[in-house]
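Our example copied in:
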Amino acid sequence: MNPRKGWKQPPPKSQRKPGGKGTRNGIAAVLIVKNEEKVLERCLRSLDMVDQIVVVDTGSTDRTVEIAKNFTSDVETMPPMEPFHFGEARNFAEKYVRQDWCLTMDADEVMADGAVNLIRKAFWTHSRATGFKVTFMLFDEKGENPSSIMKQKVYKHGRYEWLYRVHEQLHCKNPPELVVDLPDVVINHLPPQGKEVRHQQNLDLLKISVNESPEYVRNSRQLGMEFFTREQWQDAAKYLKLYLDGASPERMERSETLIYMGRCHSNLGRYDMAEQYFVEAEELVPQRREIYYYKAVALVKVMRLDEALEVAKKGLSIPEAAKPDFHLNMKGAWDGSAFKELIEFCEGELSRVKAEFERRKSGS
């Protein structure tokens, strides 16, 4: 193995910013930030083993820049951009990278202990790699309900560019591409509470992005999910269907989207349409308990309690050993608590209706 393979010379001195030259196989953590004073220090402290930290501010009005300057001299301000474009902002930040590798981070993310050293070892054991996926742990705003996905967070500087206005994606502009999974490297996503302003920004940018980048159909799913969280069922169903019709997602993600389509139509009072999506999801991944749970909930809404009870019991009967390896598995479905609550409700309502019928029948 040639440990120098793939290594490129640092940029000439005329192109370097103050703060030293690049390090062979050095790592630059790259962040774009705005009003992140609540979480930024936590993130930057976790990056103490990297060779460079680049922070590009996009218009903060709080202490974000002050905090960043306590950790790095590479703090830059991006010219105003309206409407904002996350892909272009990340490309702008990379202009200040002096290292061979980029580690893309957000302010509400934290590197696990030892993660940077594991990445360094991977440079030598996978000398032809152009990027690495790591275990990305997602937590809710209470720091609970963890789930994980493999996500590309490390890539060769200059080999990639960022595309799309929001929910930006890495694109290899200089193939061939070889992305290696590093499951032992962990980054924790720990969002702060109260991100309503950011959520509204995402909605606005997604509306623009869907129109300007129709080829990137995943934006339609993201927009549909933004509408879903706002309980705007009609708009959510519209964009989720655009995604299903225009993309070829792997079966677990497709089943998840079909479930959301069923939930949209159920909330719109269209059980027959909802059932079609639940049935399609079931045919695709019959071992997913989540499908039966949400189908049973939809049946409860139209007071088909006997059917709901049957569907819930069917879902609960799926052995836990059959649980798919999927980051969006529902905890309450697989520990049984959600089903048990639903079954108890159905049985209680059926008993109440039966008792009322008997009372009326007896004339009492």
